[in-house]
Amino acid sequence: MDYLEIHGPTSLSGEVKISGAKNAALPIIALTLLAKNSVKISNMPDVVDIKTLLKLLENLGATTSFDQNYVEIDTCCLTNTKATYDIVKTMRASILVLGPLLSRFGHCEVSLPGGCAIGSRPIDLHLKALEQMGATINIHAGYVQATAPDGLVGANIVFDKITVTGTANIVMAAALARGVTTIKNAAREPEVVQICEIINASGVKIEGIGTGELTIQGNDRELINIEPFSVIPDRIEAGTYLCAAAITNSSIKLTNVRADHLDSVLGKLREMGIETSSDETTIDIKAADFINPVKIITQEYPAFPTDMQAQFLALASLADGTSTIEERLFENRFMHVSELQRLGADISLNGHVANIKGSNELFGADVMATDLRASSALVLAALAAKGVTNVHRIYHLDRGYEKLEEKLVKLGAKIKRLSE
Ligand code: UD1
What we know:
Elements: E1 2-8, E2 13-17, H1 22-31, E3 39-42, H2 48-60, E4 63-67, E5 70-74, E6 82-83, H3 85-88, H4 98-105, E7 107-111, H5 124-132, E8 136-140, E9 143-147, E10 156-158, H6 164-175, E11 178-184, H7 190-201, E12 206-207, E13 213-219, E14 229-230, H8 235-247, E15 251-255, H9 263-271, E16 276-278, E17 282-285, E18 295-297, H10 309-316, E19 322-326, H11 336-342, E20 346-350, E21 353-357, E22 366-368, H12 372-384, E23 387-392, H13 395-400, H14 404-410, E24 414-419
Parallel strand pairs: 2-15, 3-14, 6-7, 10-11, 18-19, 22-23
Antiparallel strand pairs: 1-23, 1-24, 3-5, 4-5, 7-9, 8-9, 11-13, 12-13, 15-17, 16-17, 19-21, 20-21
Bound molecules: uridine-diphosphate-N-acetylglucosamine.
Uridine-diphosphate-N-acetylglucosamine is lined by residues 23, 26, 93, 119, 121-126, 161, 163-166, 191, 305-307, 329-330.
C-alpha cells in the first residue's frame, strides 16, 4: 500500500492547473447511457473513481477509451443492465446508473451501495422518486431491482432533503420518461447544472436549471444525441489548493478554474484574512501574515460545501483564535479530527460541531487517511507541520485528486510517494 512522506513546513509558489470535476464527470459518464451516439468528453479527471465507473459501463457492454483526459464512450450495444456488487461496493456514486438504465431499458438491477466512512448515506430518495415515476422497486439479495416495462412517466417530485446524486439520477431518468417531470427541492450544485445543460443542449428541454425547481420535458425513450463537451473545473480540488497556499502562508495561482463556483469558499478565506483575486479562469491567492478564526456551517450549494470542511478544519488549526465548524450534511464526517490531533491540532468535538483552538505550530507524525477529503486535510496539515508526516492509506486520495503529489511538488512541496 502506498503512503506519502511529507516534509514540512514548506512554502509554495507558482501555478497549478485544476483538473475536471470528479463529481461532475461521474453523472456525465452515467448520462452517456442515454445517448444514441458515441460521446466525446474532454477535461476528464484521471482519477480512480472515474476508471471505476467506466469499468462498470464496460461490464454492461459499453466501449470506452481514456487517453490524456479525453474520453469516448459508446453505449449503443449494451448487453446487460446489472451493476454488480464488486464495483458498486467500491464507489457509492455507481448508483448514478440506476435512473438512466431504468428509463432506457425499463428494467435494471443495481447493487445497494451500502454505508461509507462518513455516514449511512441512504438512497431512499432516489428510489421514492423513481416509484413516483411508475417504477416498481424490489430490494432483493442486496440489489435494487427496478422495473417499468412501459417506461417511466413524468411526475411531480418533492425531495424531502436536497440530494446531489439523487437530483442527477432523477433528471436523467426524467429525460427519457413520458411527459413532464418537476423536481422541487432540487440540488443546485454546479455539477448538477452541467448535467442539466448537457441534456438541455441534446434536445430534452429543462427549465429552471441552477434553481431548486427543475422541469424536464421527457422524450419518451428516444435516445439523445450528445455533442462533444468539456467537464467543468473541480471546485473542491481548487478549494483544496487554496487551502494549501493559505496554510503554508504562500502565494500561488490556480488556472483552469471557475471562481464563480467558489463564492462561499473564497468568502470564508476572506473572513480569515486571506485575499484572493480572480478572472474568468484563474484565481490568485496571496500569503497572509496571520489567519483569523472563522465560523463555518456546511450546507448545500451555494452555501459552504461539506467537501471543503476537512480542509478548512486543518487551516483553522493554525488560526489566531478559536474557530467553529458545524457539519450539517453527514453525521460522521469528523474522522480526520483524531488524525489532526496527532499532528498537534487542538480540536474538541461536540456532536456536529468542532471547536478548533488555533495554535502557531503543528508537528509531523504518522497519520491515517479515512476518506477522500479527510485525506487531503491531512496532506494540508502536513505541509505546514514541522518535521516529517507520513500519510497512510492514500488510496482515498487517488480516488478523487488527479496527480496530487505531482502538482504539489511542482509548487515546491517536499512529498514522496512510498510503499509500506
Ligand atoms: C454528493 C457528492 C459528495 C458530497 C455530497 C454533498 C458526488 C458523487 N458526491 O454526494 O462529494 O459530499 O454530494 O454535497 O457528487 N440522503 C438521504 N437519502 C437519499 C439521498 C441522500 O437521506 O436518498 C441524505 C444523505 O444521507 C446526506 C444528504 O442527504 O445527509 C445529502 O446527500 P447527497 O446530496 O445525496 O450526497 P451524495 O449525492 O451522495
